[in-house]
Amino acid sequence: MKKAVLFSDCHFPLGKVDDKMFSSFTEHLGRCIYTGLYEPGHPTADEDGFRMDVMDLIKELNVPVIRYPGGNFVSCYDWHDGIGPKENRPKRMEYAWSSIETNEFGIDEFCRWAKKAGVEPMIAVNLGTGSIKDAGDLVEYCNHPGGTYWSDLRIKNGSKEPYNIKYWCLGNEMEGAWQAGHLSAEDYAKKALEAAKIMRWVDPSIKLVACGSSYDNLPTYLEWDRIMMKELYDQVDYLSTHNYTMRAGQSVKDYLSSYVQLDNHIKNSVKVLDYVKAVNRKKKDIKICLDEWNVWNFQDIKLDSLGDLNGLTTFEITSADKWEIAPPILQEKYSLLDALVVGGLGISLLNNCDTVEIACLAQLVNVIAPITTVKGGGVYKQTTFYPYEFISRYGRGTVLKSVMDSDTYSSVYGECNTVASSVIYDEKTGEIHIFALNTDENDDVELKLDLPQFADKKVSKHIVLCGDDLDAINTIDTPDNVTPKEITPSGSAAAVLPKLSFNVLILK
Ligand code: AHR
User: Fold this and answer.
1) Atom 6 in ligand 1: which residue has the minimum CA distance?
2) What burial class does residue 250 get, using C-beta atoms within 10 Å of its C-beta: 0-12 exposed, 13-18 middle, 19+ buried?
3) Which domains does the chain have, with CATH numbers?
4) Global pTM exceeds 0.85
């Protein structure tokens, strides 16, 4: 058996993890909203048509914030279409995903759903085909108490109390040619600045997210952020970035090393922020809002390498028949291996808690998601549900700086530790929570925990996600094919991490 030592000292905290680190994202895309969150007539649907079986699973995940309504969708979306009597709402051609949008579900339904689910909405405004005035009107509709046109319309539509939405995204992936109304960095800066001004005039208490670089293979990567953040620095509170991890022909080892890629990706955005702050002599700090992250293997298309994605439009990345209502697209089926990768990404998120304040798993239901529903039928947990659940449940507290002394290996992302880990001190319970990913394909690793100030604490619970078949998936008929298990805790300051496993260690 291989050996590793994890050293951590409570005198060196990295930072407090913000609860918003465990947020998620729901878009009008495929079956995420329609037949995902919302399916009137479903046996579990409540009086609003919200699927309670889905809501119960979301509550299990304890999701604090959910971003809505997109994604690429938002850049083609007119929010006015989704308010008022449902029978009067227009059916539209939805360009982002070549679908039909019925508009049965809009901002009022989302806010009602969010209240029932106990989550806080984060709303993206359309800065592609939408106007800055539309953005201001939406803030007025949602947040103004009453006595004005849009706020009174909200009241007329059934919501007397304002929604008081705090977090607002200034567009989505505006640097990408696939985005309806995409802009250069200079033009985005101008439009976002004017939108931000109006939105803050309507409600000065809101927090704004500037739309940063998404895909690092774009020629504008980071330059976009540098140019537009120079203009927007004083007006915004967060810089967004997106990061999707793809297997795309990589070996198991390289794919598992993706936690390093996410770590680099986050740190790159932070470097640009530091640069803009220093060059422009700014005082305030801006946090990162990683408002889309996940494993996404583009299973709707055949992909041999990441390069195959270059130049594809969103029309081409799905198998959608054109202009269907809620087509079953981007319905990834996650394997055990994908779940291990998500665990590693979770570790990187936590280890960047000093700069990342908001992170949204993209997405939550049916589309690139940990929860899958059958239309008119049941719901099940994908393999990736579990690592997300664990980081949400055990990742809250203070991340301590730590040093891993383990074997290393060469990967596409450079030299990596065989064991990746994050150490969290939960002040509320006094427990230490350790996440550990063993990437070794052949050997278990005995991990010794060297925690000087917590020498009295022993591993009292050990949850592990692992298995012989890395390709194993869950389905509606075999929902428990891949599930985590509890193994006998060592009762000492050590644990054996099975080969290719994601582990949660609770020390009391
Ligand atoms: O989450 C799916 C899509 O990925 C989103 O609509 C877009 O923002 C990103 O490219």
Assistant:
1) 71
2) middle
3) 2-10+399-507 (2.60.40.1180), 18-394 (3.20.20.80)
4) yes
